[in-house]
Write a structure and sequence with these properties.
Blueprint: H1 11-32, H2 34-44, H3 46-50, H4 54-57, E1 64-65, H5 67-70, E2 72-79, H6 86-106, E3 113-119, E4 122-130, H7 135-143, E5 148-153, H8 156-167, E6 178-184, E7 188-195, E8 202-208, H9 210-222, E9 228-232, E10 235-238, E11 250-253, H10 259-271, E12 278-286, H11 288-317, H12 319-341, E13 345-346, H13 348-377, H14 382-414, H15 417-447, H16 457-460
Parallel strand pairs: 1-13
Antiparallel strand pairs: 2-4, 2-12, 3-4, 5-6, 5-9, 7-8, 8-11, 9-10
Helix pairs in contact: 1-2, 1-12, 1-15, 11-12, 11-13, 12-13, 12-15, 13-14, 13-15, 14-15
Length: 466
């Protein structure tokens, strides 16, 4: 039983869609590179008449460049996890990463990269701040995130013993008066500023998490009549005496605060108190000059490669090759617009992934055109050959691209930051290339299939006849 093949659309419909694709390509061109269109407006005198500039109107959608291209600051912190059980170290470091990300986001740092690394028993925090050239400012930015601790009083005998040892020059780093407890800033839920009704001095009210409430209740019950010290960044700021067990999960910090300093402290604590103390062990300022040179070389290589591929496609496939290049230009415009809108942080590796995806998009067109030539060798009409060629090539394109997408997903999931950038741009490019190769190229080819053109097979391919 013969099955009738359905055609996607007629040439007239294809021509309408081709005009739509052309219009979309022009709009995306304005969106991606507004500065070039501004130069045209200035050269033509239109800007002088209207005062309109695309660069200003689209300025809120710039490309986001990574640390290796625009420069910035690279910081490495070592975490002190000695007081945290092995089973909780991983979750505590993830909490540190979240806190640091929230902190730098408050200062408007574009796309900060904060990641946790582990080597044996050591934990490190890597912080990359693109666009920040002042290392000292970056260190202050991270260092302002406080580490909050609650400490209980040592037994008198132990306190006296440590003091005696310190007189001998030993145990100098040991706090003789207070012992660290499990209650730290990671149990902090909310912080508020208030004023004492009698003294009018500023006070800071801490509200603890559910886990913190239990720990605080146990701590106050065990230390009734004793001081409970509150340490901030390793320094004591308050040591109130516990009068009774506190079960409500709230505590107050009183001290020699001014309204301004108390307000700043509240803001810092609400931004996130570090659950683990960190220490800066390495710092590096990345200059943009090397990244700029790498970017220029990558773009030059991409442009030269594009021109060579275009020349080959037009020489070997003639009119379909030219249409494939037009589809590839639309593909490039769509992908760049997506990079702006998501936005994707473009690193040197990410740009390499994008250029590689362009090659894969061309490869899809080659598969289609070779299949199309086989159909033409059987003396079929051009439109029938087009439909059949695209249909038969689709399975090969689909399978190869799915395998590439799976590889990109694995690289993104398990790779480091550099590998993730490569995988992300490659994955986005592959998805859009499937659309451009199948829909855009086919639509443009059908759009040029006039009745007269169907007799000009030599315009379409060379060497397809028997």
């Amino acid at each position: 039983m013969a099955i009738e093949k359905k055609k996607s659309f007629k040439p007239r419909t294809a021509r309408v869609l081709a005009i739509v694709f052309l219009f979309i390509g022009i709009l995306l061109g304005f969106f991606n590179v507004p500065s070039y269109f501004d130069r045209f407006l200035a050269w033509s005198g239109i800007r002088d008449l209207t005062g309109f500039t695309f660069q200003q109107s689209l300025l809120h959608f710039p490309f986001r460049l990574g640390l290796d291209i625009q420069g910035g600051t690279h910081l490495v912190y070592q975490a002190d996890v000695n007081n945290i059980s092995t089973s909780e170290q991983g979750s505590s470091m993830e909490a540190v990463r979240d806190v640091i990300e929230r902190r730098v986001n408050l200062f408007g740092v574009a796309e900060p990269l904060v990641q946790v690394e582990r080597g044996g028993a050591e934990w490190r925090l890597i912080v990359e701040l693109a666009g920040i050239k002042d290392i000292n400012a970056a260190i202050r930015l991270i260092g302002e995130t406080p580490y909050l601790e609650f400490k209980e009083a040592r037994p008198d005998a132990e306190r006296d013993q440590i003091l005696e040892r310190q007189k001998e020059g030993k145990m100098l780093n040991e706090d003789p008066y207070f012992l660290a407890t499990e209650l730290t800033g990671r149990h902090l839920k909310k912080t508020e500023l208030s004023f004492n009704n009698q003294t009018y001095q500023p006070e800071i009210t801490l509200e603890l998490t559910d886990e913190g409430k239990v720990l605080f209740a146990e701590l106050t019950k065990k230390n009734i009549g004793k001081p409970l010290a509150i340490y901030l960044d390793g320094a004591p700021i308050s040591a109130p005496v516990v009068r009774e067990e506190i079960t409500g999960g709230k505590a107050q910090i009183t001290g020699d605060f001014t309204p301004k300093s108390a307000k700043e402290l509240v803001g810092r604590l609400n931004a996130g108190a570090l659950p683990v103390p960190i220490k800066l062990i390495a710092q590096q300022s990345v200059e943009a000059s090397l990244g700029k040179e790498s970017l220029e070389r990558s773009l030059s290589a991409g442009i030269i490669g594009f021109i060579l591929v275009a020349a080959f496609m037009i020489f070997w496939y003639r009119l379909p090759g030219l249409i494939a290049i037009l589809a590839l230009l639309l593909y490039t415009a769509i992908v760049l617009a997506i990079f702006k809108l998501i936005p994707v942080t473009l690193t040197a590796a990410g740009i390499a992934g994008f250029i590689l995806s362009i090659g894969m998009a061309v490869d899809a067109n080659v598969l289609i055109f070779e299949r199309l030539k086989e159909e033409l060798r059987q003396d079929k009409g051009l439109q029938d050959s087009l439909e059949e060629g695209f249909r038969r090539a689709w399975t090969s394109i689909r399978d190869s691209n799915i395998s590439s997408l799976i590889t990109s997903a694995i690289l993104y999931w398990f790779g480091t930051s550099v590998i993730k950038g490569f995988a992300l741009t490659l994955g986005i490019g592959i998805l859009i290339s499937m659309f451009s190769a199948i829909w855009v190229t086919r639509t443009l080819l059908i759009a040029v299939l006039t009745k007269r053109a169907q007799n000009w097979k030599f315009v379409f391919f060379s060497g397809f006849s028997k």
